[in-house]
Each structure stands twice: as C-alpha cells, then as structure tokens.
C-alpha cells in the first residue's frame, strides 16, 4: 500500500511538526530547512510547498491531504474537504489602520485576502476599493496608499495591534483532503485524522 501524500507548508510553525510527531508520524524536526521537495516518512510522504499552494495541490490530486490556513481556504475556495481543525497557527484576520472614529465609507483597503475583504465590506454595506498587495501591508498605511488594511494578526499580538478596528474572523490550520483520495484511500486518511485528533 502506497504512502499518503501530504502537501506540507514550508515555513510552518513548530506546532504542526510536534503535532504530527506526537501522533506517531516520523518527520524531521528541521523539515522546513530541507532543500528537498519531498521527504518520505512512515505512512506519509511530505511534499514541501509554499503555504498558498497547498489547497491547489490537494484539489488537483498532486497530494492526498494537506495543511492549510482557514483564511487560504476561504480566499481560494478550492474543491477540497476540510477534515480537522488542527488548532495551530491561531490568528485573526482583522481590519487595521482605520480609526474607530473614522467613518467607514468610500475607503481604499490593501490586503492579501481580496475575496474575503470584498465580501466583508459588501456584507457591511461599506463602499471599499480593495487592492491586492503582498508583503508588509503596514507600508500601504504609512505611504497612504490605503486607508486601512485587512491582515493577519497573531492572537498574542492582537492587543498590541493599534488601531485594531474589527476582527473579521479567527483562523487556524486545517487538515484538508482531495475528494477522490478520500473515497479511494478512506481507511488510511481516516487513520491519520484519528491519530491527530487524539493529540489535539
């Protein structure tokens, strides 16, 4: 029986590594420093990719399972199944930079999450020009390119993020699976899911 292929996000936190190790899956603690594209372990072969590419690999079957942030799943809307909230990399997606005294209308918003931001402001009947940016979004504020930004804030730093106008959603890593793989390799994938559930 062939190993399950897992799309592993490069640069992921040590939390995820420890979680898989605690569940009994062998993988090196320095996996993020590896220059290899794939690392074979017991039961699972890890495909090292950029975090934003994980849902794509899983949707198209290049990987059976993967680890992706909830924000990436909502932003990309890929045809994958979300199996488990791993509880790692907890953070929040928030509107930053706009004063609470500032009226929210006809504003320019910079973000790396344009789909989520557009849906949020539309739902709140706020006219917003959403521009897609990458990198440090604070530059968009300091240069006055944007009136506000929608960005990820780590939970422990949320109190220091000033001004934090409003939290859009709380996010964390999720275990996702390809639809066909879940049908054909159900026992293997369910075993992985169960093992991880026991150590959450």
TrEMBL record:
One CC-aspect GO term: cytoplasm
UniProt entry tagged with the keyword Cell division: no
Pathway of action: Amino-acid biosynthesis; L-histidine biosynthesis; L-histidine from 5-phospho-alpha-D-ribose 1-diphosphate: step 1/9
Role noted for this protein: Catalyzes the condensation of ATP and 5-phosphoribose 1-diphosphate to form N'-(5'-phosphoribosyl)-ATP (PR-ATP). Has a crucial role in the pathway because the rate of histidine biosynthesis seems to be controlled primarily by regulation of HisG enzymatic activity.
NCBIfam families the UniProt entry points to: hisG (TIGR00070)
Catalyzed reactions: 1-(5-phospho-beta-D-ribosyl)-ATP + diphosphate = 5-phospho-alpha-D-ribose 1-diphosphate + ATP
PANTHER family in the record: ATP PHOSPHORIBOSYLTRANSFERASE, ATP PHOSPHORIBOSYLTRANSFERASE ATP-PRTASE
Protein's name in the database: ATP phosphoribosyltransferase
Cleavable signal peptide: none
Organism: Paenibacillus solanacearum
A GO term, aspect molecular function: ATP phosphoribosyltransferase activity
Keyword tags: Amino-acid biosynthesis, Glycosyltransferase, Histidine biosynthesis, Transferase
Domain ATP phosphoribosyltransferase catalytic: start-end pairs: 50-196
InterPro entries, sorted: ATP_PRibTrfase_cat, ATP_PRibTrfase_HisG
């Amino acid at each position: 029986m062939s190993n399950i292929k897992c799309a592993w996000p490069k640069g992921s936190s040590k939390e995820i590594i420890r979680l898989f190790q605690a569940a009994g899956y062998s993988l090196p603690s320095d996996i993020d420093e590896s220059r290899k594209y794939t690392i074979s372990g017991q039961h699972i072969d890890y495909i090292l990719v950029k975090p934003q590419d994980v849902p794509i690999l899983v949707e198209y079957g290049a990987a059976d399972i993967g680890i992706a942030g909830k924000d990436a799943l909502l932003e990309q809307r890929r045809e994958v199944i979300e199996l488990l909230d791993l509880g790692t990399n907890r953070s929040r997606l928030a509107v930053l930079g706009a004063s609470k005294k500032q009226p929210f209308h006809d504003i320019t918003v910079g973000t790396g999450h344009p789909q989520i931001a557009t849906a949020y402001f539309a739902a709140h009947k706020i006219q917003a020009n959403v521009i897609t940016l990458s990198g440090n979004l604070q530059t968009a504020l300091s240069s006055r390119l944007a009136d506000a930004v929608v960005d990820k804030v780590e939970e422990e730093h949320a109190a220091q993020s000033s001004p934090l106008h409003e939290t859009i959603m709380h996010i964390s890593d999720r275990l996702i699976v390809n639809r066909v793989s879940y049908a054909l390799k159900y026992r293997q994938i369910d075993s992985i899911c169960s093992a991880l559930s026991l150590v959450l």
